[in-house]
Amino acid sequence: MKVTVVGAGAVGASCAEYIAIKNFASEVVLLDIKEGFAEGKAMDLMQTASLNGFDTKITGVTSDYSKTAGSDICVITSGIPRKPGMTREELIGINAGIVKDVSSNLVKHSPKTIIIVVSNPMDTMTYLVHKTSGLDKNKIIGMGGALDSARFKYRLAEALGAPISDVDGMVIGGHSDTGMVPLTRLATRNSVPVTKFISEERMNQVMEDTKVGGATLTKLLGTSAWYAPGAAVSALVQAIACDQKKMFPCSVMLNGEYGMKDICIGAPVILGRNGIEKIVEIELNDAEKAHMKESAEGVRKTNDLLEL
Ligand SMILES: NC(=O)c1ccc[n+]([C@@H]2O[C@H](COP(=O)([O-])OP(=O)(O)OC[C@H]3O[C@@H](n4cnc5c(N)ncnc54)[C@H](O)[C@@H]3O)[C@@H](O)[C@H]2O)c1
């Protein structure tokens, strides 16, 4: 199993580290345009191998796509991150050019690859890869919901005073501060709806904290977060590489599901060796449907800024 991660910055390196530590891939190639940067990150990570007990070989390259040839899975994290006060949508000008160029280079050298898009605005960047890469629709996956759901579970556990392992929950919709749809109605603590334990007021707070999860960290760190994003990407990579058939909310091209077409937005999917094996349609109530519709309008507005 060969995995390429483009962008050896905060998220790319964190993702490569988690993939290596989980020890399911034979090789991870880190690629960056900054001369020597990916080589340095790869060497540093390889020097943790004997300490962390993994055999995955990590190599770093500067812009040399020939070294990525034959990758089963490619992750795109290249691009600029948010600074405090910025929205993800504001990154489109620079990141669209980078993502288009990177995905076409990846597909040239690995025509059978599955691509996971991380660069923001992620739903629109995923849509861009759909429109420009020529890959089948099941092979293009946007990572946002897996991270947003992890942040949701963190906030739910905090409100419940419970361990995170007791909590289950999912965030669908667009990967933006206003677009996320945390499914509070379906969240559970050991199969019991969390609404049984948390007041409506506290639940609203959980929802708000979840939606601004990324912005809160960007304000604290001065740039966007990397540990949880890296871990979320590595979970998707593992589900595909190990054919786990695990369910995650991912940004996926809809063709009628959830009443939408020609849009990439967060919905639950089953991930396995073929990438997206199935889009799972869950019954939403009227409020959730309205929230999804509004979220989609926001994503479409950003998609309209693309020069396709
Ligand atoms: N989808 C999500 O949930 C999520 C979460 C966190 C961050 N992000 C996004 O991921 C992206 C990366 O964030 P980061 O914190 O790692 O940023 P970073 O600045 O630390 O790293 C980005 C790296 O991309 C490299 N790069 C730029 N152009 C390139 C190109 N054409 N080819 C190859 N490499 C190139 C840069 O040299 C840099 O090393 C940002 O767009 C950020 O908004 C998404």
Give your account of this protein's structure:
The protein has 308 residues and is α/β, with parallel strands linked by helices. It has two domains: 2-142, NAD(P)-binding Rossmann-like Domain (Rossmann fold), CATH 3.40.50.720; 145-303, Lactate dehydrogenase/glycoside hydrolase, family 4, C-terminal (L-2-Hydroxyisocaproate Dehydrogenase, Chain A, domain 2, Alpha-Beta Complex). The protein has ten helices and 14 strands. The protein has helices spanning 10-22, 37-46, 49-52, 92-109, 122-132, 145-160, 200-211, 213-221, 227-241, 286-303; strands spanning 2-6, 27-32, 57-62, 73-76, 114-117, 140-142, 167-168, 171-173, 180-182, 188-189, 192-193, 246-255, 261-272, 275-279. The strands form four sheets. It has a six-stranded parallel sheet with strand order 3-2-1-4-5-6, sandwiched between helices. A hairpin with a 6-residue loop joins strand 8 and strand 9 (180-182). Helix 1 (10-22) crosses helix 9 (227-241) and helix 6 runs antiparallel to helix 7 (200-211). The radius of gyration is 19 Å and the shape is globular. The model has no long low-confidence stretch (mean pLDDT 97). Bound molecules: nicotinamide-adenine-dinucleotide. Nicotinamide-adenine-dinucleotide binds next to helix 1, strand 2 and helix 4. Nicotinamide-adenine-dinucleotide is lined by residues 6-12, 31-34, 37, 77-82, 91, 95, 98, 101-102, 118-120, 122, 143-144, 147, 175, 223-226, 229.
